[in-house]
Amino acid sequence: MIPAQFDYARANTLDEALSLLAQTEDAKILAGGHSLIPAMKLRLIQPPLLVDIGRIKDLSYVREADGQIQIGAATTHYQIESSELLKKICPLLPECAGHIGDVQVRNRGTIGGSLAHADPAGDWPAAIVALNAELVAVSKQGERVIKADDFFVDLLTTAVEPGEILREIRISKPAGTAQAYVKMHHPASGFAVVGVAANLSLNGGSLCAGASIGITGVAAKAYRPTAVESSLHGATLDEQTINAAAAHAGDGIDTNGDLFASADYRRHLAQVYTRRAIEAALARAA
Ligand SMILES: Cc1cc2nc3c(=O)[nH]c(=O)nc-3n(C[C@H](O)[C@H](O)[C@H](O)COP(=O)(O)OP(=O)(O)OC[C@H]3O[C@@H](n4cnc5c(N)ncnc54)[C@H](O)[C@@H]3O)c2cc1C
Q: Does pTM surpass 0.85?
């Protein structure tokens, strides 16, 4: 449980971090370290250099600008959980943050680290795809914006390239009028066996003008169940409609199975928790 030898450099600015990254092949960004350090201790990865971005102030913020919610990649889960701004304009994010690990994990872990790590059982990916977020990656060559649907590529793999740093997460306002995140916590790790984020736009009561749903824990990467979304779109969200729509939560998905939850059980949980997420969002909007 001791990592291989590595060098450490603390960056004070984003530019400095990018230069350090560019200098050493296979260097890794260190944010909260809650996923990276365990992986190094298990020697699953042996980076020659860690570039610590944890003290770069410009990477830690929650703000409203240009009709968007903007969140710096090094913002901790706790900062998001406790943001009064987000509680008002995008409650899905603080709610999702509150489901992550325990207080220590939320105080140290960052949204950018979690998204870049792309754990199939991580909570953020469900909310980020449900909110149609945009993710800004920066490198020495410049900046590019990646849509959430294109960001998660596979198990522990994202569209962030070597030499790039995830800088910001952007969400368009209004994000939705009814939102909720529900999760079945793994009893040992606390990670999501299944987690579902619902982001609904309602027209007067329960008429659904738009629905985007994100599901994590079930497959190699978070996904949007498009058949559920299209069944909800334009419908009055009564019990029968919600049940019928949620039944499609695992359609076309290659479902993970492990000792705790078989693939069939996970598919079933995806349906149950999708229904619960939609019901919870509706109850909050009422
Ligand atoms: C006990 C425990 C319980 C946990 N429970 C949960 C849970 O219930 N739900 C959940 O979702 N998570 C959980 N986590 C994980 C936690 O959310 C971590 O915070 C998260 O996975 C990684 O964030 P980090 O800031 O610690 O990143 P790090 O561990 O520092 O980095 C993770 C990876 O992302 C890369 N990286 C970091 N920041 C950037 C960036 N800005 N740009 C590019 N690459 C970057 C790193 O190089 C590394 O490869 C748990 C962790 C622990 C230790």
A: yes
